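Reviewers asked in the last cycle whether our approach scales beyond single polypeptides. To address this, we selected a multi-component target totalling 408 residues and predicted its structure end to end. The input consisted of the following lines:
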Amino acid sequence: MTARTGEVRPFEPPPAARESLQGHYAGFASRFAAFAVDLVVLTGIFLLVLAAINFAASVLTGNSVHFNRGNIWVVIAYAVWAFIYFAHFWGLNGKTAGGALFGVQVVTNDGEDVSGRRAIGRTLAFPLSFLILFLGFLGILLGDQRRALHDVIAGTTVIYCWDARAARLRMLSRPRYSAPRTPPESPSLPESPSQADPSADLDQAG
Amino acid sequence: MDPFAPLRSRLAPPAEALAQTIAERVVGLVVGALDLNALLAEIDLNAVLAQVDLEPVLDRIDVNSLLDRVDVNRLLATVDLNQMLSTVDVTALIGRVDMDQVLQQVDVNEVIGKVDLNAVIDRVDMNAIVQRIDLEALVEQTDLGAVIAKSSGGMASDLVDAVRSRTVGVDESIARWVARLRRRPYPGPPGPPAGLQAAAAS
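The resulting structure, written as C-alpha coordinates, was:
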Protein backbone atom coordinates (compact mmCIF):
# COMPACT_ATOMS: atom_id res chain seq x y z
CA MET A 1 0.00 0.00 0.00
CA THR A 2 1.29 3.41 -0.89
CA ALA A 3 0.75 6.76 0.73
CA ARG A 4 -1.22 9.53 -0.89
CA THR A 5 0.11 13.02 -0.53
CA GLY A 6 -1.21 16.59 -0.79
CA GLU A 7 -4.52 16.03 0.99
CA VAL A 8 -7.10 18.80 0.56
CA ARG A 9 -10.06 18.57 2.88
CA PRO A 10 -13.01 20.70 1.66
CA PHE A 11 -15.48 19.23 4.13
CA GLU A 12 -14.89 18.32 7.74
CA PRO A 13 -17.91 16.82 9.52
CA PRO A 14 -18.72 17.90 13.06
CA PRO A 15 -17.28 15.77 15.85
CA ALA A 16 -20.66 14.19 16.59
CA ALA A 17 -20.83 12.76 13.07
CA ARG A 18 -17.38 11.15 13.21
CA GLU A 19 -18.59 8.25 15.29
CA SER A 20 -21.36 5.91 14.29
CA LEU A 21 -24.67 7.18 15.63
CA GLN A 22 -26.62 4.36 14.03
CA GLY A 23 -29.51 3.44 16.32
CA HIS A 24 -29.26 6.54 18.52
CA TYR A 25 -32.32 8.73 18.94
CA ALA A 26 -32.52 11.33 16.16
CA GLY A 27 -32.37 14.98 17.10
CA PHE A 28 -34.67 17.89 16.35
CA ALA A 29 -32.86 19.28 13.31
CA SER A 30 -32.70 15.96 11.47
CA ARG A 31 -36.35 15.25 12.12
CA PHE A 32 -37.47 18.74 11.18
CA ALA A 33 -35.39 18.72 7.99
CA ALA A 34 -36.78 15.32 7.05
CA PHE A 35 -40.32 16.58 7.62
CA ALA A 36 -39.66 19.68 5.51
CA VAL A 37 -38.42 17.51 2.64
CA ASP A 38 -41.48 15.28 3.01
CA LEU A 39 -43.71 18.33 2.88
CA VAL A 40 -42.03 19.51 -0.33
CA VAL A 41 -42.24 16.06 -1.90
CA LEU A 42 -45.85 15.30 -1.05
CA THR A 43 -46.98 18.83 -1.98
CA GLY A 44 -45.04 18.66 -5.24
CA ILE A 45 -46.60 15.35 -6.17
CA PHE A 46 -50.04 16.66 -5.19
CA LEU A 47 -49.64 19.74 -7.36
CA LEU A 48 -48.43 17.60 -10.25
CA VAL A 49 -51.53 15.42 -9.96
CA LEU A 50 -53.78 18.49 -9.82
CA ALA A 51 -52.05 19.85 -12.91
CA ALA A 52 -52.52 16.53 -14.68
CA ILE A 53 -56.20 16.50 -13.77
CA ASN A 54 -56.55 20.09 -14.98
CA PHE A 55 -54.82 19.19 -18.25
CA ALA A 56 -56.99 16.11 -18.75
CA ALA A 57 -60.16 18.06 -18.04
CA SER A 58 -59.18 20.81 -20.46
CA VAL A 59 -58.46 18.26 -23.17
CA LEU A 60 -61.65 16.29 -22.61
CA THR A 61 -64.12 19.10 -21.87
CA GLY A 62 -62.40 22.16 -23.28
CA ASN A 63 -62.78 23.92 -19.91
CA SER A 64 -59.94 24.22 -17.41
CA VAL A 65 -60.51 23.42 -13.74
CA HIS A 66 -59.20 25.96 -11.26
CA PHE A 67 -57.99 24.53 -7.95
CA ASN A 68 -57.27 26.78 -4.99
CA ARG A 69 -56.76 26.49 -1.25
CA GLY A 70 -60.30 27.70 -0.59
CA ASN A 71 -61.73 24.63 -2.22
CA ILE A 72 -62.67 22.23 0.58
CA TRP A 73 -62.27 19.22 -1.68
CA VAL A 74 -58.73 20.18 -2.49
CA VAL A 75 -57.96 20.49 1.23
CA ILE A 76 -59.57 17.12 1.96
CA ALA A 77 -57.73 15.49 -0.94
CA TYR A 78 -54.45 16.99 0.27
CA ALA A 79 -55.06 15.70 3.81
CA VAL A 80 -55.93 12.22 2.53
CA TRP A 81 -52.85 12.20 0.31
CA ALA A 82 -50.63 13.30 3.20
CA PHE A 83 -52.13 10.59 5.39
CA ILE A 84 -51.48 7.93 2.73
CA TYR A 85 -47.95 9.22 2.15
CA PHE A 86 -46.85 9.12 5.78
CA ALA A 87 -48.77 6.01 6.83
CA HIS A 88 -47.55 4.05 3.83
CA PHE A 89 -43.87 4.88 4.19
CA TRP A 90 -43.77 4.59 7.99
CA GLY A 91 -45.51 1.22 7.77
CA LEU A 92 -43.33 0.07 4.87
CA ASN A 93 -39.87 0.53 6.39
CA GLY A 94 -40.15 3.45 8.78
CA LYS A 95 -38.60 5.84 6.30
CA THR A 96 -40.26 8.55 4.25
CA ALA A 97 -38.41 10.31 1.43
CA GLY A 98 -37.15 12.95 3.83
CA GLY A 99 -36.28 10.35 6.41
CA ALA A 100 -34.26 8.40 3.86
CA LEU A 101 -32.44 11.56 2.79
CA PHE A 102 -31.50 12.58 6.32
CA GLY A 103 -30.97 9.05 7.58
CA VAL A 104 -33.72 8.84 10.18
CA GLN A 105 -36.16 5.98 10.67
CA VAL A 106 -39.33 5.45 12.71
CA VAL A 107 -39.19 2.36 14.92
CA THR A 108 -41.08 1.10 17.95
CA ASN A 109 -39.90 1.88 21.47
CA ASP A 110 -37.95 -1.37 21.44
CA GLY A 111 -36.31 -0.65 18.12
CA GLU A 112 -38.53 -3.03 16.14
CA ASP A 113 -40.03 -2.26 12.73
CA VAL A 114 -43.27 -0.30 12.82
CA SER A 115 -46.38 -2.30 11.96
CA GLY A 116 -49.03 -0.95 9.60
CA ARG A 117 -51.48 -0.39 12.45
CA ARG A 118 -48.92 1.52 14.49
CA ALA A 119 -47.98 3.58 11.41
CA ILE A 120 -51.64 4.56 10.92
CA GLY A 121 -51.91 5.48 14.62
CA ARG A 122 -48.79 7.62 14.40
CA THR A 123 -50.08 9.36 11.28
CA LEU A 124 -53.42 10.11 12.92
CA ALA A 125 -51.71 11.42 16.07
CA PHE A 126 -49.22 13.49 14.09
CA PRO A 127 -51.49 16.56 13.68
CA LEU A 128 -52.01 16.70 17.45
CA SER A 129 -48.41 17.79 17.94
CA PHE A 130 -49.19 20.79 15.69
CA LEU A 131 -52.63 21.57 17.03
CA ILE A 132 -51.45 22.20 20.60
CA LEU A 133 -49.28 25.11 19.47
CA PHE A 134 -46.42 22.81 18.49
CA LEU A 135 -45.95 21.86 22.13
CA GLY A 136 -46.12 18.24 21.06
CA PHE A 137 -42.61 18.56 19.67
CA LEU A 138 -41.10 19.71 22.96
CA GLY A 139 -40.44 16.09 23.87
CA ILE A 140 -37.85 15.89 21.08
CA LEU A 141 -35.87 18.66 22.76
CA LEU A 142 -36.43 17.76 26.40
CA GLY A 143 -37.07 14.01 26.54
CA ASP A 144 -34.43 11.39 27.17
CA GLN A 145 -35.70 9.40 24.20
CA ARG A 146 -36.41 12.45 22.04
CA ARG A 147 -40.04 11.45 21.50
CA ALA A 148 -42.73 13.83 20.29
CA LEU A 149 -46.36 13.60 21.44
CA HIS A 150 -47.37 11.49 18.45
CA ASP A 151 -44.45 9.15 19.20
CA VAL A 152 -45.69 8.67 22.77
CA ILE A 153 -49.24 8.01 21.58
CA ALA A 154 -48.18 5.52 18.90
CA GLY A 155 -45.40 3.90 20.94
CA THR A 156 -42.71 4.83 18.45
CA THR A 157 -39.44 6.69 18.35
CA VAL A 158 -37.11 8.00 15.65
CA ILE A 159 -33.50 6.86 15.32
CA TYR A 160 -30.55 7.56 13.07
CA CYS A 161 -30.37 4.73 10.54
CA TRP A 162 -27.11 5.68 8.81
CA ASP A 163 -23.57 4.90 9.83
CA ALA A 164 -21.77 8.21 10.25
CA ARG A 165 -18.39 6.54 10.76
CA ALA A 166 -18.72 4.53 7.55
CA ALA A 167 -19.74 7.68 5.71
CA ARG A 168 -16.68 9.49 7.01
CA LEU A 169 -14.42 6.66 5.88
CA ARG A 170 -16.06 6.80 2.44
CA MET A 171 -15.43 10.52 2.30
CA LEU A 172 -11.79 10.14 3.31
CA SER A 173 -11.32 7.51 0.62
CA ARG A 174 -12.42 9.78 -2.24
CA PRO A 175 -9.54 10.41 -4.63
CA ARG A 176 -10.79 13.89 -5.48
CA TYR A 177 -9.88 15.02 -1.97
CA SER A 178 -6.28 14.48 -3.00
CA ALA A 179 -4.59 17.19 -5.09
CA PRO A 180 -1.27 16.63 -6.84
CA ARG A 181 1.63 18.42 -5.21
CA THR A 182 2.80 21.50 -7.06
CA PRO A 183 6.36 21.24 -8.35
CA PRO A 184 8.92 23.80 -7.15
CA GLU A 185 8.59 27.05 -9.12
CA SER A 186 12.30 27.56 -9.66
CA PRO A 187 15.07 25.03 -9.48
CA SER A 188 17.42 27.75 -8.23
CA LEU A 189 15.36 28.24 -5.09
CA PRO A 190 16.82 26.63 -1.98
CA GLU A 191 15.18 23.38 -1.05
CA SER A 192 12.42 23.92 1.46
CA PRO A 193 11.81 21.50 4.33
CA SER A 194 8.53 20.38 2.75
CA GLN A 195 10.31 19.50 -0.50
CA ALA A 196 12.99 17.65 1.29
CA ASP A 197 10.55 15.68 3.40
CA PRO A 198 7.31 14.57 1.69
CA SER A 199 5.76 13.71 5.02
CA ALA A 200 5.90 17.40 5.94
CA ASP A 201 3.22 18.08 3.29
CA LEU A 202 1.00 15.51 4.88
CA ASP A 203 1.50 17.05 8.30
CA GLN A 204 0.66 20.51 7.00
CA ALA A 205 -2.38 19.31 5.12
CA GLY A 206 -3.55 17.23 8.07
CA MET B 1 65.66 -58.86 58.55
CA ASP B 2 63.01 -56.81 60.10
CA PRO B 3 62.38 -58.02 63.64
CA PHE B 4 58.87 -56.44 63.57
CA ALA B 5 57.82 -58.08 60.37
CA PRO B 6 56.00 -61.02 61.96
CA LEU B 7 54.25 -58.68 64.37
CA ARG B 8 53.32 -56.26 61.59
CA SER B 9 52.02 -59.03 59.40
CA ARG B 10 49.90 -60.27 62.25
CA LEU B 11 48.53 -56.90 63.32
CA ALA B 12 48.07 -55.34 59.88
CA PRO B 13 44.81 -57.08 58.87
CA PRO B 14 42.87 -56.25 62.05
CA ALA B 15 44.33 -52.70 62.01
CA GLU B 16 43.23 -52.17 58.40
CA ALA B 17 39.79 -53.54 59.21
CA LEU B 18 39.56 -51.20 62.18
CA ALA B 19 40.72 -48.23 60.10
CA GLN B 20 38.18 -49.11 57.39
CA THR B 21 35.39 -49.27 59.95
CA ILE B 22 36.46 -45.97 61.52
CA ALA B 23 36.73 -44.30 58.09
CA GLU B 24 33.30 -45.50 57.04
CA ARG B 25 31.88 -44.32 60.34
CA VAL B 26 33.57 -40.91 60.08
CA VAL B 27 32.60 -40.37 56.46
CA GLY B 28 29.01 -41.35 57.25
CA LEU B 29 28.94 -38.88 60.15
CA VAL B 30 30.50 -36.08 58.04
CA VAL B 31 28.17 -36.62 55.09
CA GLY B 32 25.19 -36.79 57.43
CA ALA B 33 26.25 -33.53 59.03
CA LEU B 34 26.74 -31.72 55.69
CA ASP B 35 23.95 -29.44 54.35
CA LEU B 36 24.31 -29.99 50.60
CA ASN B 37 21.89 -27.20 49.74
CA ALA B 38 23.94 -24.76 51.79
CA LEU B 39 27.07 -26.04 50.13
CA LEU B 40 25.53 -25.56 46.65
CA ALA B 41 24.43 -22.09 47.63
CA GLU B 42 28.05 -21.27 48.42
CA ILE B 43 29.12 -22.17 44.90
CA ASP B 44 29.18 -19.30 42.40
CA LEU B 45 27.61 -21.01 39.41
CA ASN B 46 28.19 -17.97 37.24
CA ALA B 47 31.89 -18.14 37.87
CA VAL B 48 31.90 -21.86 37.12
CA LEU B 49 29.92 -21.38 33.91
CA ALA B 50 32.13 -18.49 32.87
CA GLN B 51 35.06 -20.90 32.67
CA VAL B 52 33.21 -23.35 30.47
CA ASP B 53 33.35 -23.00 26.69
CA LEU B 54 29.83 -24.13 25.83
CA GLU B 55 30.13 -24.00 22.06
CA PRO B 56 32.38 -27.08 21.51
CA VAL B 57 30.36 -28.97 24.09
CA LEU B 58 27.13 -28.20 22.29
CA ASP B 59 28.70 -29.09 18.96
CA ARG B 60 29.57 -32.55 20.21
CA ILE B 61 26.14 -33.24 21.64
CA ASP B 62 23.46 -34.88 19.52
CA VAL B 63 20.61 -33.10 21.28
CA ASN B 64 17.86 -35.11 19.66
CA SER B 65 19.30 -38.52 20.60
CA LEU B 66 20.10 -37.25 24.07
CA LEU B 67 16.58 -35.99 24.61
CA ASP B 68 15.18 -39.27 23.32
CA ARG B 69 16.95 -41.08 26.16
CA VAL B 70 15.90 -38.68 28.89
CA ASP B 71 12.59 -38.73 30.71
CA VAL B 72 12.42 -34.96 30.82
CA ASN B 73 9.21 -34.82 32.78
CA ARG B 74 10.59 -36.99 35.55
CA LEU B 75 13.82 -35.03 35.56
CA LEU B 76 12.07 -31.69 35.74
CA ALA B 77 9.77 -32.91 38.50
CA THR B 78 12.77 -33.34 40.79
CA VAL B 79 14.30 -29.95 40.05
CA ASP B 80 13.44 -26.77 41.90
CA LEU B 81 13.72 -24.58 38.82
CA ASN B 82 13.05 -21.37 40.68
CA GLN B 83 15.86 -21.93 43.10
CA MET B 84 18.22 -22.99 40.34
CA LEU B 85 17.39 -20.06 38.08
CA SER B 86 17.74 -17.59 40.93
CA THR B 87 21.44 -18.41 41.10
CA VAL B 88 22.06 -18.22 37.35
CA ASP B 89 22.65 -15.08 35.33
CA VAL B 90 20.40 -16.19 32.50
CA THR B 91 21.07 -13.09 30.40
CA ALA B 92 24.79 -13.69 30.38
CA LEU B 93 24.27 -17.36 29.68
CA ILE B 94 22.01 -16.66 26.70
CA GLY B 95 24.45 -14.06 25.47
CA ARG B 96 27.07 -16.77 25.10
CA VAL B 97 24.84 -19.12 23.12
CA ASP B 98 24.84 -18.96 19.34
CA MET B 99 21.08 -18.96 18.87
CA ASP B 100 21.35 -19.33 15.11
CA GLN B 101 23.23 -22.55 15.55
CA VAL B 102 20.71 -23.81 18.06
CA LEU B 103 17.77 -22.90 15.87
CA GLN B 104 19.34 -24.66 12.89
CA GLN B 105 18.97 -27.87 14.83
CA VAL B 106 15.30 -27.23 15.58
CA ASP B 107 12.53 -28.26 13.21
CA VAL B 108 10.40 -25.11 13.46
CA ASN B 109 7.62 -26.56 11.33
CA GLU B 110 7.28 -29.46 13.72
CA VAL B 111 7.18 -27.12 16.69
CA ILE B 112 4.52 -24.95 15.05
CA GLY B 113 2.58 -28.05 14.11
CA LYS B 114 2.27 -28.89 17.77
CA VAL B 115 0.77 -25.48 18.58
CA ASP B 116 -3.03 -25.24 18.69
CA LEU B 117 -3.42 -21.95 16.84
CA ASN B 118 -7.17 -21.92 17.37
CA ALA B 119 -6.65 -22.04 21.12
CA VAL B 120 -4.13 -19.23 20.86
CA ILE B 121 -6.47 -17.10 18.76
CA ASP B 122 -9.34 -17.80 21.15
CA ARG B 123 -7.27 -16.19 23.87
CA VAL B 124 -6.69 -13.04 21.78
CA ASP B 125 -9.15 -10.16 22.15
CA MET B 126 -9.59 -9.30 18.47
CA ASN B 127 -11.99 -6.46 19.29
CA ALA B 128 -9.33 -4.79 21.41
CA ILE B 129 -6.86 -5.11 18.55
CA VAL B 130 -9.30 -3.63 16.03
CA GLN B 131 -10.06 -0.79 18.42
CA ARG B 132 -6.36 0.10 18.43
CA ILE B 133 -6.33 0.52 14.65
CA ASP B 134 -6.70 4.09 13.42
CA LEU B 135 -9.10 3.30 10.58
CA GLU B 136 -9.29 6.89 9.44
CA ALA B 137 -5.53 7.14 9.03
CA LEU B 138 -5.50 3.75 7.33
CA VAL B 139 -8.15 4.74 4.78
CA GLU B 140 -6.78 8.23 4.30
CA GLN B 141 -3.16 7.35 3.69
CA THR B 142 -3.32 4.07 1.83
CA ASP B 143 -4.71 2.59 -1.36
CA LEU B 144 -7.35 0.91 0.76
CA GLY B 145 -9.20 4.21 0.43
CA ALA B 146 -9.28 3.87 -3.36
CA VAL B 147 -10.73 0.37 -2.99
CA ILE B 148 -13.48 1.68 -0.75
CA ALA B 149 -14.14 4.57 -3.11
CA LYS B 150 -14.54 2.19 -6.05
CA SER B 151 -16.94 -0.02 -4.12
CA SER B 152 -19.16 2.77 -2.82
CA GLY B 153 -21.37 5.40 -4.40
CA GLY B 154 -20.37 8.58 -6.15
CA MET B 155 -20.95 12.28 -5.77
CA ALA B 156 -24.60 11.93 -4.76
CA SER B 157 -23.81 9.70 -1.82
CA ASP B 158 -21.04 12.08 -0.77
CA LEU B 159 -23.51 14.95 -0.84
CA VAL B 160 -26.01 12.96 1.22
CA ASP B 161 -23.30 12.05 3.73
CA ALA B 162 -22.28 15.68 4.02
CA VAL B 163 -25.86 16.88 4.50
CA ARG B 164 -26.53 14.21 7.13
CA SER B 165 -23.30 15.02 8.95
CA ARG B 166 -24.13 18.72 9.05
CA THR B 167 -27.65 18.01 10.32
CA VAL B 168 -26.31 15.73 13.04
CA GLY B 169 -23.98 18.54 14.03
CA VAL B 170 -26.96 20.90 14.32
CA ASP B 171 -28.81 18.21 16.34
CA GLU B 172 -25.98 18.07 18.81
CA SER B 173 -25.65 21.85 18.99
CA ILE B 174 -29.35 22.18 19.79
CA ALA B 175 -29.16 19.38 22.37
CA ARG B 176 -26.16 20.99 24.10
CA TRP B 177 -27.87 24.37 24.05
CA VAL B 178 -31.03 22.94 25.62
CA ALA B 179 -28.98 21.08 28.24
CA ARG B 180 -27.20 24.33 29.11
CA LEU B 181 -30.53 26.11 29.49
CA ARG B 182 -31.71 23.33 31.80
CA ARG B 183 -28.38 23.42 33.64
CA ARG B 184 -27.82 19.75 33.06
CA PRO B 185 -24.75 18.02 31.68
CA TYR B 186 -25.07 16.71 28.13
CA PRO B 187 -23.58 13.22 27.92
CA GLY B 188 -23.99 12.88 24.14
CA PRO B 189 -26.59 11.45 21.81
CA PRO B 190 -29.00 9.24 23.78
CA GLY B 191 -29.89 5.70 22.81
CA PRO B 192 -30.10 3.31 21.22
CA PRO B 193 -33.41 1.66 22.22
CA ALA B 194 -33.21 -1.42 24.41
CA GLY B 195 -34.18 -3.78 21.59
CA LEU B 196 -31.42 -2.52 19.34
CA GLN B 197 -28.88 -2.78 22.17
CA ALA B 198 -29.86 -6.40 22.77
CA ALA B 199 -29.64 -7.16 19.05
CA ALA B 200 -26.21 -5.53 18.85
CA ALA B 201 -25.02 -7.45 21.92
CA SER B 202 -26.13 -10.78 20.48
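Chain A touches chain B through 51 residues (CB under 8 Å). We regard this as preliminary and will revisit it once experimental data from Aim 1 are available.
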